[in-house]
Amino acid sequence: MNTHQDRCGFVALVGAPNVGKSTLLNRFVGTKVSIVSPKVQTTRSRVLGICIRDGAQVVFIDTPGIFQPRRRLDRAMVSAAWTGAADADLVLLLVDAKRGIDGDTRNILDGLQQKDGQAVLVLNKIDLVAKNRLLELTAELDDSGLFNDVYMVSAETGDGVDDLLADLAGRMREGPWLFPEDQISDIPMRLLAAEITREQLYLQLQQELPYATAVETEAWTEQDDGSVRIEQVLYVERAGQKGIVLGKGGKRIKALGAAARTQLEEIFERCVHLFLFVKVREGWGDDPERYRDLGLDFNA
Ligand code: GDP
Ligand code: MG
Predict the structure, then answer these.
(1) Using CA atoms, how far apart are residues 291 and 296, in angstroms rounded to an integer?
(2) How close is the Cα of 24 to the center of ligand 1, in Å?
(3) Could you say which of 51, 83, 183, 296 is the most buried, measured as most Cβ atoms within 10 Å of its Cβ?
(4) What is the pLDDT of residues 206-262, one digit of tens each?
(5) Pocket-testing residue among 22, 34, 36, 129, ligand 1, by greatest number of atoms within 8 A of Cβ
(6) Which residue has the CA at smallest separation from atom 25 of ligand 1?
(7) Domains of the chain, start order
(8) How far is the CA of 122 from the centre of ligand 1 (A)?
């Protein structure tokens, strides 16, 4: 392998909620750095995934989805997504091949056109659709004049992802690597640990509740035996939600903790002792400090 550290660049992943941006980022990196769920708006802040390919360091920027914002948190997330795109050398627009061009994707196309941007089109979830549907969709999207290239991938199965990465690596500009060779993300371990637990909230809790929760890692203690003790607080907005997160006889919180712990041990490759606490913090969604913690702009 060519290890000259002479090319690098930023590639932003943008798209409507749920098109598979975070799944693709994790696939590029080869491990989970950005959480994934079937619910929309799982990704709240900007996450970097860093890959090295053919001597080039490709820095992917995962972004929250771009959609019609309603709450303050929505506005901050959408703004972070556009900032991610503006900061990048290259923009990948992801489209869910099964869902096709929905209103959110249409808005993003308009937004990119207004910014005179060029983008690489990535049709994702090709494992779910027939080939002729892909060609139709490509033709439709080609009309926008935004795309020089189209890739068809499945972030889930990995189909086409390696070819895409090789191509992106070839387009990186000359310049020294921006991150150390072994770094795969800029997300601090404490935050990643909180995100992994938040992912379980999205996977295990019904309906709107995950959107009303926040997770913070309060303590991270290295143990003598090489294991780590992680204490986290799950914040909910109302007292009634606390009972749901705990579950009957503490059953739900136990299941959340068990699943999160398994993931954490896999990611950190060590033994993890995870302790979860639930607290009510009214209006955390309007707390400027939380936005800062997430790297979001409170006043977006
Ligand atoms: P994001 O909101 O764009 O970051 O989307 P996520 O990465 O969170 O993925 C949303 C949902 O789509 C999750 O349930 C993923 O497992 C699923 N998904 C992502 N990529 C693919 C794919 O290529 N094929 C299939 N079948 N599902 C996918
Ligand atoms: Mg995401």
Answers:
(1) 5
(2) 8
(3) 296
(4) 877 888 888 999 999 999 999 999 999 999 988 889 999 999 999 999 999 999 999
(5) 36
(6) 125
(7) 7-174 (3.40.50.300), 189-293 (3.30.300.20)
(8) 13
